[in-house]
Amino acid sequence: MNEDASTDRGRVETPLEVATRAVEQARSLKADVEAYVQAGRTVTIKVFQGDIESATVAEPRGVGIRAVRDGKTGYAFSTDVSPEGTAQVVAEVMRCLEAADEDKYAGLPEGDDYESIGDLWSAGVIDTSIEQKTALALQAEEIALAVDGVVAVEESVYTDEEEHVAVCSSRGVHAESKTSYGFVYVVAHAGQGTERQSGLGFDAGRDPSRLDPRQAGSEAAARANALVGGRQCKTGSYTVVLDAVVVSALLSTIVRALSADAVLKGRSVFEGELGKMIASGMLSLVDDGLDPQGMATSPFDGEGVPQQRTVLLEEGVLRTYLYDTRSARWQGGGAGSTGNARRASYRSLPGVGSSNLVVAKGEGTLEEVARRVGNGLYVGSVAGVHSGVNPVSGEISLGVTGNLISNGKIGAPVREVTMASDFRALLAGVSDVGGNTRWIPLYGSVCTPCVVVEGVAVSGA
Amino acid sequence: MSTVLGVYAGPSPELADGVLARSLRHGGDSADLFIEHRRSLSMRLEEGKIENVVAGLDLGGAVRVMSGLSTLFGHVDSVDEALLLGLAEDLSRSRSGAAEGVGTLARVTSRAVARVEKDPGEVEYASKSRLLHLIDDTARSMAPEIRQVTAAYGEIRQRIWVAGSEGYLAADDRTRVMLAVTVMAQRDGVIQTGHDTLAHHGGFEIFADDAVVSLAQTAASRALVLLDGRPAPAGRAPVVLGNGFGGVLFHEACGHGLEADYVLKKSSVWEGKKGQRIAGEHLFAYDDGVLAGAWGSAGCDDEGVPCQRTSLIEAGVLTGYLTDRLRARMLGLPLTGNGRRQDYRSLPYPRMTNTYFGPGECTSEEIIADTPTGLYARSLSGGEVNPLTGDFVFGVEEGYLIENGSIGAPVRGATLIGNGPQVLEGIDAVANDLAVKAGMCGKEGQSVAVGSGQPTVRIRELTIGGTGLA
Fold first, then answer.
1. Which of B38, B54, B327, B397 is the best mutation test for A, with the most CBs of A within 10 A?
2. pLDDT in tens, B43-92
């Protein structure tokens, strides 16, 4: 597939040019106006049994416009970024604005300087050919299949994305960024008949050349093999060792209760807990919007406010909530945005969300942590995060697979069991933290080691 | 009163023909062109105020070239002829065979599955915001413990056109509207939530005031009941699953595993089991893409295949799989109209439309009376399955203990976990109160509208993931 075919079809406006023009077109509306423009290029290659199953190449783009007047906010978006297209969006956004109710905290942030961050974009994402990208997926598949016990690879996928974002507003925001990200993942099967089990392995980075297909392939194989022969364990209270992947799934939901928007609207179990100990002293957590390795890193957030490094938990003590411009105004008392206005895409308004969550590391590999624990349950993966973790009530009940830990060794595989807890009990129950951190882009962006929690209810046989 | 965003009449047959011919210029088994025009509007109320009003336009096209099991795919955020032809050209260039012909494009007529009596695009924004305020007022008036109400209105008018080199040109026009409510109640530091939705494939006519009031009351009652809930038990017990949302059971325990892409890759526990007995004789199950007004219904699927009602389990015997064009061809299975995609940016996959168990003969009261102890899960939230192992989970939103054959104390949210084949065999009672509810299903990173339903059923034994350790 030819990746460069579009470049000879005339010059395309940059996102910053589109955003600037859109704000200009809205000048007559007497409203504060902000335009958010995304343009990118994405490649996804799936391989199966040594062949390409599907190859996708696209250059998606679009524009979203927010307007605020007399405390009312409207939003409209379109895939049409031409001058006619943005003119239509400008007209539609005012109709939306008129249908909204007045909100005294509504408003756009003032323009602010932001520092650029090196290394968020890597030329390799463009320079690497489709054939080389395909080869990464093929290698990952081959490596998984070569491992003893592996009977099939369900899919092996290479995917990358290059994204240009621009935010401009009538309040002086004028920001643009360019990022790249690549990801390779494999789902391997091990075992026979009804004992067949699957495992996921992955590697991620900003440049295809930094992706390691061996890591993805061998992790998938190891995870599938480790579960073959799994049975329900006994119902009871367990010391659980949560794999980094599981920690990332739980933290990315728990942190929704640390959004100032949730707290101010009474939707958080952590309301009124600033400065208090809400977690074990073993746990320190930072929302780091600036770490060059994080997938959510950008110089500025979804409304153009500089991103920052925000300490959430310091040895278990809650230091702050996360804010966007509106929630900071509502909070008052000198609170400012922490640069946590996040957007799924140009199709949605910004809302408070975490950027990269980074857990402070402790000591030791997973095996060493298991040795320290002695007896318990290693939780390798969870199922049902959307239905089983309630960010408002704080209740957690998830399907898990993993292995029993006995006499310090990770052993007998376990399947078809659940673990249940709640945000407070889980955070307070942390008794140990591993030393091998890993960036996990599966549930938001989280960098964490494995974490040990005492007294978790496990339901099984 | 329709939105000022974009007007589009669809691609001409000449353009479709040109794109398909160009995409097969250097070989390939078949190709298709998919064009989508989607206008959407959403409104969200929280803190008693309409906070967000968002209108949008998605207009774009996608081209796919297939050769054996291998697919090349590209999409553009435009319906500009030169861009679509250019995309076809790019895709064809990576092949090196001889040109393949394109069949004469015959129009496929798709049956209307819904009558839109009141086009939501013609309804004033103020009428929509009034409904959200009605929900807020109704829920807040129910009890002082109601602390927060989040209500959302959504409408989508999606028109699609799909043309394939085998010689078809199909179009469909889908209007979907939804009201979703989450109510939060708080007492003595305990927070509980209750949720409900009212949605269909059709127009604004479903939002009669009494239906909207009842929606708000249901969500608020759920949150209030759970304030008195005790922790759910941990361990194995008989489970009675309520009608409507209980249909998440079939969706997760069986439905996904019948999607032919998993079957083709031998990644499904149901692969090779067609014609075999997998449940009791009282069990029937369907995927019904033409159920009038149902959320997951459509005239045709996103590959131009007319939607239909497909029997999946007949008197306990597995009778079929759900296919898209590619997997039907590879497996030699019939087309079932299940080739669905989130939008033009995504490849089609076999996906469920509306799935449900057929009704039985007893009443739900009789089933509960016949259950000495267990859990009654009246309403479920979503779930997840590993199609390979058949192990699945789903969340209980509103649950009660069953004690001495009657409904007892409410219990707080818990996940139920089981294994598809075992649980299907374990269904030992089916009531006569079939209902189908609206939801969203995620797969391959794509979200599509599905209906899930069932009458009340009982499962002999299931693992309940509570914190209540005996």
1. B54
2. 999 999 999 999 999 999 999 999 988 999 999 999 999 999 999 999 99
Q: d(Cα B250, Cα B244) in Å, to the nearest integer?
A: 11
SS3 state of residue A104:
coil
Give the gap in angstroms from C-alpha A55 to the nearest C-alpha of chain B: 5
3-state secondary structure at position A238: strand
Residue B388 to residue A395, Cβ atoms within 8 A? no
**For B53, which of A53, A99, A416 is closest by C-beta distance?**
A99
Helix (H, G, I), strand (E, B) or coil at B308: coil
Whether residue B461 contacts residue B238, with contact meaning beta carbons closer than 8 Å, is answered with yes
Q: Give the three-state DSSP class for B98.
A: coil
DSSP 8-state secondary structure symbol assigned to residue B251: I
DSSP assignment of A107-148, as one string? -PPPP------TTSS-THHHHS-HHHHHHHHHHHHHHHHTST
> Which residues sit opposite A238 in a β-bridge?
A456
Q: pLDDT for B351-369, tens place per residue?
A: 999 999 999 999 999 999 9
B107 in contact with chain A, both atoms CB, cutoff 8 A: no
Looking at this protein, which amino acid is placed at residue B251? Answer: H
Q: Which pTM was predicted?
A: 0.95
Which of A65, A153, A259, A459 to mutate to probe the B interface, most B CBs <10 Å?
Answer: A459
**A153-175 burial code (b ≥16 CB/10 A, e <16):** bbbbbbbbbbbbbbbbbbbebeb
Residue with tokens 């669905």: B340
Residue A197 scores a pLDDT above 70: yes
Give kind and range of the element (H or E) at residue B17. Answer: helix B13-23
In this structure, are residues B35 and B304 in contact, taking their beta carbons and an 8 Å threshold?
no
The Cβ-side half-sphere exposure at B105, using a 13 Å CA radius, reads 23
